[in-house]
Amino acid sequence: MRDRHVASTIGLAVSVVMLVLGRGMLSFEEARDRVLSDVPLVGIERANLRDAAGRVLARSVVARGPFPPFAASAMDGYAVAAASFSGEGPWTLDVGGESRVGREPAPLIRGSACRIFTGAPVPAGADTVVMQEDVTRDGHHAAFKIAPDRGAHIRQAGEDLAAGAVALEAGVRLGAFQLALAASLDHPELVVAERPRVTIICTGDELRAPGEPLRPGSIAESNAIGLRLLAEQGGASVSVAPLVGDDLPATRAAVERGLASSDLLVTVGGVSVGDYDVVRPALEQAGVTLGFWKVAIKPGKPLALGRAGRVRVLSLPGNPASSMVTFALFGLPLLRAMQGDKNPLPPRLRARLGSRITRKPGRLEFVRSQLIMMADALTVVPLSNQASGAVTSMAWSDALAIVPAESTSLAEGQTVEVLRVSDA
Predict the structure, then answer these.
(1) Residue 16: is its pLDDT beyond 60?
(2) What's this model's pTM, rounded to 2 decimal places?
(3) Residue 424 confidence (pLDDT)
(4) Burial of 273 (0-12, 13-18, 19+ CB in 10 A)
(5) Which candidate, 285, 216, 221, places its Cα nearest to that of 247?
(6) What pLDDT is recorded for position 271?
(7) Tally of helices (H runs) and strands (E runs) in the chain
(8) Rounded to an integer, what distance in angstroms lies between the CA atom of residue 372 and that of residue 399?
């Protein structure tokens, strides 16, 4: 009987999901696939290493010669030839010469040792370095109790990269470590993807700029700054258009201006079908072909994808949490794909739930949460306010716990998939 009850409950949940999706909504995966389908690439340009930070590499970086370029010591000690340690030890060798960084040492005299320092070139004729802790020095003589292994403590020329080897593949996003490698390989500039041009249009009669005088029924507009910073995090060059009220001609004019100067146009608000939701007709009148209008996710059901030639259009819901979550889930991968990023989708973690989640089934939900370590396990703790307009929980979260569409409850301690906000 218990198994029948479980099966009945699961069947009811699946039926609800299918009913919701049947009302014109796409699943999250299907919508994301459409967003990332046939994405036009932006152009390429050269950038010096400092300006290349955060950009996507458009042409692979190749080692022009062996790297390291010469054999160097990995220790302070003595450069020797392993052949000098024949027979029974201990061995005493004359110390002749010295090898320091930035200078070419004289060849090693056969049967002798050369004082050498970390990073210094290994002299010709030497094939081994003995670290100074294993050597007893007495004037011009060095005593060795143990015969060293040939090649010990030497970084060989080409050990990391052979000449012509690919050091950084096209499609990688350039951070501190990648740019340090490029500098080590003597590349002063790199070929990178241009920054996609993004225009953000926020709509709604209720909006006013932060700090402007209050008026009845008005709210301070907060989406523009959040979306701008997210888009810049994705490598874009961003413009924010002046606020537009719920007026069809004005919205259409703003859309047409945005289309003329953007690779991605983002509209915010007015995407539902109410009497004052004018974004959809404005887009259509401006020549935008809409691919879809609703996605079965929470927050963010009213979400549209459009195209106008090479320009992509994302129309986001106006509630702040909904707009930022949907842009993180769809806009950032789209921007990465435009730049040829070989990893446009963020990684997902798995973490233990810190508290129970109870909900209505039907939409895949991204629950604003905090990641902590609890009892030596990565734990995701849902925040209490999950309202689509809750800027507070958006600001306090550092992760999104992913709840499957068919789930009605998840128990504390259950493992779920998680997106870190910083990875979005």
Answers:
(1) no
(2) 0.86
(3) 86
(4) exposed
(5) 285
(6) 76
(7) 9, 28
(8) 10
pLDDT of residue 276: 64
**pLDDT above 80: residue 45:** yes
Distance in angstroms (rounded) separating the CA atoms of residues 155 and 166? 20
- Residues 253, 201 contacting (CB under 8 angstroms): no
- The CA radius of gyration of the chain, in Å to the nearest whole number, is 31
Is pLDDT of 14 > 60?
no
Same domain, residue pair 229 and 246:
yes
373 inside domain: yes
Averaged pLDDT for residues 298-322: 95
Q: Is residue 5 part of a domain?
A: no
Nearest Cα residue to 319 out of 388, 383, 394: 388
Q: Are residues 98 and 52 in the same domain?
A: no
**What is the domain extent for residue 372?**
349-423
pLDDT band at 270 (very low <50, low <70, confident <90, very high): confident
Give the up-direction half-sphere exposure of residue 306: CA atoms within 13 A in the CB hemisphere: 26
Q: Computed from CA positions of residues 74, 78, 79, 80, in that sequence, does the dihedral angle turn out positive or negative?
A: negative
CA-wise closest residue to 61 among 75, 74, 46: 46
- Structure letter (DSSP) for residue 402: E
Taking a C-beta distance cutoff of 8 angstroms, is the pair 313, 288 a contact?
Answer: yes
Please name the amino acid found at residue 371: L
